[in-house]
Amino acid sequence: MNHVELSPELILQAYANGVFPMAESREDESLFWVDPRERGIIPLDGFHISRSLARLIRQDRYRVTFDQDFSGVMEGCADREETWINATIFDLYGQLFEMGFGHSVEIWDGPRLVGGSYGLALGTAYFGESMFSRVTNASKLALAYLVTHLRRTGFTLFDTQFLTEHLASLGGIEISRAQYRSLLHEALQHNADFNSVSDPLTPQDVLQLRGQMS
């Protein structure tokens, strides 16, 4: 894809049709569309909080925020030897954040950003893009808070694109392309507002989710 032809609006249209862009590497200036045969999702009523994650949540040692450092989270996600997040992705998703479609969850240790995740929201679908950890289990903590926030703000679909071992340990599953598109179609018939609830989540709020799913 030629960068000149790309726009935030085109990216949103692609997501609404079940595809998303990636780059071969950080240095590659071009993007390509991806439409997985098997799609990874985290059922919002099936997120798994292990004993160790529950213990970390109870400790409440990290501060959790939403939409406070979108670019910092993207940089954290790209800070690895191999990444599909190139300059074009940074630019387009930064614009989507400014337009209100991009969102992030941040994990802070004092003033230091130690973990987080970012994605896009459209209808009642949330498309998780990437996550990172600079301390043990920070990305799991981010996802626990994110799932709780998505549930309380009316989202119905949490798309993770692919299923990794890490995501499977948190309750992630794979579904067929046809199943995914059916869920996506339904999610796009309704609206959810990521910012409709501004009250900070407490550890008890997140752990209550565990009780509801047990």
Describe it for me?
The chain is α+β, with helices and mostly antiparallel strands and 214 residues long. 37% of the residues lie in helices and 24% in strands. It has 8 helices and 9 strands. The protein has a 7-stranded mixed sheet with strand order 4-5-6-7-8-3-9, with helices on both faces. Strands 1-2 form a two-stranded antiparallel ribbon. A hairpin with a 2-residue loop joins strand 5 and strand 6. The longest helix has 15 residues. The termini are far apart. The model has no long low-confidence stretch (mean pLDDT 94).
Largest sheet data: 7 strands, mixed
**Given the helix and strand composition, which structural class is it?**
alpha+beta
- Report the principal-axis shape: globular
Q: Low-confidence parts, pLDDT < 50 over ≥5 residues?
A: none
Let me know the average pLDDT. 94
Terminal CA distance: 45 Å
C-alpha Rg, in Å?
16 Å
How many strands in all? 9
Give the amount of beta strand, in percent.
Answer: 15-25%
Order of helices and strands: HEEEHEHHEEEHEHEHH
Number of helices, where a helix is a run of at least 4 consecutive DSSP H or I residues:
8
- Helix fraction bin: 25-40%
| Biggest sheet, spatial arrangement of strands | 4-5-6-7-8-3-9
Which features does this protein show?
214 residues; alpha+beta; seven-stranded mixed sheet; two-stranded antiparallel sheet; 24% strand
